[in-house]
Structure formats: structure tokens, C-alpha cells
Amino acid sequence: MSENKAPHVAKFVYDFTEGNKDLKDLLGGKGANLAEMTNLGLPVPPGFTITTEACKGYLENGEEPAALRDEVSAHLDALEARMGKKLGQADDPLLVSVRSGAKFSMPGMMDTVLNIGLSDKSVQGLAKQAGDERFAWDSYRRLIQMFGKTVLGVEGDLFEEALEKAKDAKKVKVDTDLEAADLKKLVTAFKKIVKKEAGRDFPQDPREQMDLAIKAVFESWNGDRAKLYRRQERIPHDLGTAVNICSMVFGNLGPDSGTGVAFTRDPASGHQGVYGDYLQNAQGEDVVAGIRNTVPLAELERIDKKSYDQLMQIMETLENHYKDLCDIEFTIERGQLWMLQTRVGKRTAGAAFRIATQLVDQGLIDETEALQRVTGAQLAQLMFPRFDEKTKVEQVGRGIAASPGAAVGKAVFDSYTAVKWSRSGEKVILVRRETNPDDLDGMIAAEGILTSRGGKTSHAAVVARGMGKTCVCGAEELEVDTKRRRMTVPGGHVVEEGDVISIDGSTGKVYLGEVPVVPSPVVEYFEGRMHPGADDADELVEAVHRMMAFADRKRRLRVRANADNAEDALRARRFGAQGIGLCRTEHMFLGERREMVEKLILADTGEEREAALTELLPLQKKDFVELFEAMDGLPVTIRLLDPPLHEFLPDITELSVRVALAESRQEPHENDLRLLQAVHRLHEQNPMLGLRGVRLGLVIPGLFAMQVRAIAEAAAERKNAKGDPRAEIMIPLVGTVQELEIVREEADKVIAEVQAATGTELKLAIGTMIELPRAALTAGQIAEAAEFFSFGTNDLTQTVWGFSRDDVEASFFTAYLEKGIFGVSPFETIDKDGVGSLVKLAAEAGRRTRPDLKLGVCGEHGGDPESVHFFHEVGLDYVSCSPFRIPVARLEAGRAATQSTGSDHR
Length: 906
Known about the structure:
Layout: E1 13-15, H1 24-39, E2 47-50, H2 52-61, H3 68-83, E3 96-102, E4 112-116, H4 122-130, H5 133-150, H6 156-170, H7 180-198, H8 206-220, H9 224-233, E5 241-247, E6 258-265, E7 272-280, H10 284-289, E8 295-296, H11 300-303, H12 305-322, E9 326-333, E10 336-344, H13 349-361, H14 367-372, H15 376-382, E11 386-387, E12 394-398, E13 400-403, E14 406-412, H16 415-423, E15 428-432, H17 440-445, E16 448-451, H18 459-467, E17 470-473, E18 479-481, E19 486-488, E20 494-496, E21 500-504, E22 509-512, E23 517-518, H19 521-526, H20 539-554, E24 558-562, H21 566-574, E25 580-584, H22 594-602, H23 606-630, E26 635-639, H24 652-664, H25 670-682, H26 694-699, H27 703-720, E27 726-731, H28 737-758, E28 765-770, H29 773-777, H30 779-782, E29 788-791, H31 793-801, H32 805-811, H33 813-818, H34 832-849, E30 854-857, H35 865-873, E31 878-881, H36 886-897
Parallel strand pairs: 14-15, 15-16, 16-17, 24-25, 24-31, 25-26, 26-27, 27-28, 28-29, 29-30, 30-31
Antiparallel strand pairs: 1-2, 2-5, 3-4, 3-5, 6-7, 6-9, 7-8, 9-10, 11-23, 12-22, 13-17, 14-21, 18-19, 19-20, 21-22
């Protein structure tokens, strides 16, 4: 289903009765879904949404659009008339929440303020109206705390410290044990904090509270943590956030009230059942903050069966309506259930595959839609190793399995340390009592997250699942002391910062030390060691198998492997490769053969050079015979020698020392001296732009001819053994058609000689890599001499950007990502505007010259999910990637072929 386009009328505010779930661009995810639930007749507190367009206008101009205040006033008047009370009136105040709501879920990254409308006067009226003085003062202290931190920029820890002092003075552990008089004193303390830190009094005018909160939500779109989260999740920066003004309902009115978060299926496993958290006598932020430990949602049946039964019915309605796992926030106010939010829920990788197949079996979605519910990134997560529980390890705790994976690292107790140590190459586990949005940097840097508080709906759990990060929450038996930077485990053992721990996000178990890992069952399935439908196959393998079958039926792009030997080729074939898209022959010249290459480089005469090539020929031929046997019946694209020759020689410093020592000892060193002279002769300031690729074949007589002969003889031998070799010869680093024509003429002559000598007809395609901007710009000419193009996007990215990959990723890419110059590294996901434009131009020009030109890609982008979609769009025939990325590329190729604009399950 495609999303409705936003109306062209300049309208900045929509009542919940006016929108629907397809207006996410305009109303944000929260506002659109509140409107949808209102349309379904579910119990949603009345309210209205300020659009993302208003936010963008505010951020662009530094002030709200001229019409916005009047529109807000009109909708507020209508809300007051409907509720029969005025915002913040003294006797019976209307209170509202002001909540952010972007198109894509960004849990905890932007701002929310509850209880807007409370003041020194209206708090008395609320107490009288509710018949509960404690509730009123609790609500007021919450407003000052949230408003002070969110709107006025007061350090949140100051409020927390004042709250802890109040509990200590009362000798209680939880805030619900504070009485009205205690909370009244706390309000006074909070107001003093605001006055001192913000330089102004807490505003008593309810409309001023609301207007300032709206602006704060707008501004939170560009807050550091929101920008970091968007970069991490690849959410565009120009969307803006909507703002939802919703009449307050209260979960902190006593034991018959409460708040909770529910899922229609388990977001960790995908299993159907009753999943979520509930907290009596609490407001919504208490659940996700993890400050008080919740009870399982199933407990609500005992606490309030009427509300529980109604909630179960609503959850079924929402899942059938959205046809997906739904994440729900609700509040119960004195036995009355209210729905505060629903959205398509974030889920773990395993849950995504299980849920997609379950929904197909239930008839709610078809195969095409199912492919949009899973991603290659999720499949890659499922291929990570797991802990080997058969090993003797010391389990020291167990929490809630919030986000799966096996994470090992040094315990760190704050975000700053996690980032610092990670940048130094250390693997770390971030350990906290509970996380909050300020911990996002550390969560990204860490291998995994461990908290002693919170449940599956806590901030740590929700954010970790969204990032695919291992997480264990609510490990209550672990005593986390962040100030002393230590954790005490049952039995009294102390884990100091820097000690290694292991956490299992699939079981919730926490271990001391490093736990060994074993292969994922998904990898065992791809390797052919686990078969779907077998007694020992788990349901996850079955779900992955079915989704891969869907993808393979739908995809147009073929998927090949980058493989340089028979072992890798066989593994790639098991993983579903449909050929080899890149065999790098330079890898065949390493090890014991390096000496033979040294002979070639040191050759002073044609005879010496010919002898070196003759020595290399049978070894090259043997390599190719093994490859053709492993990939029998499938294409094998072999790239002729590409890197600079100096890479096959010893290090210049090491060699210089060796020669100097030999001379000082008067030992024989003629060969080392010749090598040193050769190293100096071949030294280049920028070897990646020097004598390499096709240039080697043109200046070193016989080098490419030897390789072509080895390929041809291997193909003939395999064919005579009743095999089906399908060799393709690829010339690297071509910049002009003349280079390719010269090499091709020599190759055709060699192939003809082998055919005559063996009596075997050979069909060897000859093509080239497009990895230089000039090659892309003159692709129409180059296609006259090439039967195929393979885009070498690694080098093409380097030459388009002027980047040396080996240097820049470590030197300034981090800064570029942090400043938003890159959303993602151009070496990870193809730069569509620059490099991608050249790929598209070259593909079109090449096919105008040669309509049957085969087009592929063999750079690392061939296994990147987002890049695969681009290659599908520009009409390439195949992508090629490392063997372990083949399943990811297959899945994404299927998704690309069935992509629908209405599906987005971030």
C-alpha cells in the first residue's frame, strides 16, 4: 500500500479524528496511528497533532509558522469544549501531554512532557477533583522535572538527586512510598533547582508551558542524540517531527491505575502470546525508563481482569488491522483502559523471520509482502556465532533476553568510557542500572548492553533491538555501582571495570570471562549441515529457509561469489552462489610462489622472464582446474593480475637492514641486493594509481599471455573430462578502449593456439572491470571490445572521491560521519549520486553499443543490502560478494524485485 500524499493546503494542525495511518509523512508515526486508532473506535484520549511541516518551518526560520498559533488555539478550544474543562484552570484543570512523533520510531531520542497545565493553583484543583492529594503533587513534581530537563535544559541528575534525598529522608526505596507532604516539599525543591539552573521561575501560565514544550520538541529533532540515532538507523535528517497534544489520562491514581507496554507477539522471538510489562500506580515514562521493575503483562489479568480482557481484544484488532506485530502503550485510569500509542513494533532478527512466515500462514500477508518484513541486515545478524553452553563457564546472573546475540567484552560503566575504549580497539559491554537516551553513544560503541533494571520494553531493550545489538535487561541479582565502576554478582564476587564478561541476549544469561562460540544454526543450514523439516532443525531455520525460497523465486539479479580458491568456491556454492564474479589471481602468487614472482621481477633478459613464466604456468593452470571443477556449469570470472608488483617483494626497510647486515658481516647477499634494487626501481609514491592492472600486461611481455594460456588449458582439460567450464577473462583497470583491444588481441591469439593444440573448442568471454571514472565515461567505446563489464566499486569509489581507503577510514571518516557529511561510509553503501551515477551511465552506454553486454558488480557493495537495491534498479545482471554475504545478497535481490513503497519496517 502506498502512503497518501500530504494535502497541499497550508494546514498545520490535525485533530485525531482527521488523520489516518497513511499520513506518517505529515503526522508522524505516533500521530498517524493515534488517528487510526480513533477511526477504529478504540479508547484514545482526545487530542490533536501539529504536523512535521510546522516543525520544518520552525527549524528553517527559527520561529513557528505565522498561522500555527491560531490553529493550535482553535484546536485547543475544541478540545476544551469536548472535555468540559479549560487547560490549567484552577478548580478542575485539563492537563495535556506534549509528545514528539517522527515518521520513523526513534525511541527516547526526542522529547516528551507530561502533565502540562499544572501550576501552584491548579494542583489544588486536581487534588480535589481526583480526591487524591498525593496523586496531584506527584503529577506536579513530574511536570517540573520533565519540563526543567526537556524545555529549560536543567541537568536531569539534579532532580534525581533531590528525589533520592527525599526517599532517604523518608527511609523508603521507591517513589510510590512518598506521601503527599513529601511530594509537596519535593515540588518546592524542584522549583528552586529550576530557578537556580535556568535563571527563571517555573512558568505558571499553562499556555506558556504548552508553547514552550512544543518548541522544545521541535528543537529536539536536531538534538545530538536524535541526530546520532538517525545516522545509526539511516533515517533522513530532513523529515522533522510532528508534535502530539493529547489530553492526559493518569496511571498514577492508585493501585487501580497503572501504565504498560504490550506486544501482540514476542519482539524477541516472534512467538504468539501475552508479552509486555505493566506497572501499577505509574505514568508511562516509568515503564520505559526502567526505574521501577515492572510485572509481566500476564499479571494484569489478576490485577484488573476487565481491563486485561479489553486489552487482549484490542491487541487482536490492531494486529489484524496492521497485519503485523504491534507495539502498544496504554494507561489504566481507575479501571478505565486508554490507548496512548500503537506502531509496528521493532523486533529482533529471528522474530522478524518467524513473524513474516507466521503471517503468511495466517493469510494476513502474501509472499511479496513477507519479503518486505525482513532484511539482509537481519539475516546477517542470524549468521553470527552463538555461545557454546557445553563449555564449563561460570554463570553469575540471568536477566531478560531482550535482544539476541553472543557478546563478549570488558565491562564499562558509562557511555564515555565505552566510546573511548572502543575507539582504542577494545571490545566492551556497557553495564548500567538502566540506560537513558544520553547513553546512545556508548550503546552504539559496545558489543552488548547489560542492565540490572527494566524489561523487554525498557529503553535499553527497545533501542538495542532496533540496532541489532545484544542486550540483557533486568538482571536484578546484579548490583551495579556506576560511581565505583563495579558490579557485584551473587556470592559476593566483584566485577571491576575492565574485567571480561559475556552476555547471551537469546537466554538472558550473564557469564564471567570469555565464553567460546559455536556456529549459528542458520550458517549450518546454508552449509548443508542442518535441513529444514528435520527433527533437529529449529523453527528459525525453517523460517529462514522459506524466506530464502520466496526471495529466490522473485529475484531477477543473480548472485555470484568473490572466491579465489576451490575451498571458497565450494562454500559459496553451498551458500547459493550462481558462479564466481571475481577470482583475484594475485592471491595465487603468495606463499611459496612468491619466489617465482621475484624471479619474474628480477629477470634481466627475455629468456629469464620466459623461464619464470613457464615455471608459473602449470601452477596457475592447476588453480583454475580446481576452480572449474568446484564451479562446474557456472560462470567463473577470472581477473588477470591487478596489484602493483612491489606487493610481491619484501618490505623495503626489512630488506635494507638485511643487506646492510650482510655487508657488515661480509656475507654473500647478491640476491638480496638485486631485490633491493628492484624494490627501489618499482617504488611509487602512489602505487594504487601507478603500474598495476592492464598496465602490467602491457609493459611486462608474456605476463597476461601466461595467465590466459593457463585459463584456456584448464578449461580445455576440464571440458575433455566431460565437465562444463564457463570461464570469463577480466582485464583490470582499463581506462581506454585501446588498452583493452591490445590485450584482447593477444588473448584471442593464445586461446586459438590452445584450441588448436588440444582440439577443444573454447568459448571464453573477455571483458573488463569498470573501476576508473574515465572507463565509465567512455563505456560506449570500451563495450566495442568487451563482452561484459564488472564494476569494481571499491576502486571506483576511491578514484571518484579521491580517497585512499586504507588511509581515510582511520583518519577522518569518523568526523565526516559525526558531522553528517556522510550518512554512511561510501565504501560500505554505494554513493548513488556520485559513484552510482557513473555506474548507471556506463551501463546504459555499454548496452547501447552492445545490447547483450553482461553487467555485474564485484566490489564489496555487491553484498550490501542497500546497494543491491540500487544495482537492481540500474539493470545489472548480477552482484558478486564474499561467500558469507551471498545469502544476504540473495534475500535483498528478492526484496528489490518486490519492493513496495508502502512497506517500511525500520
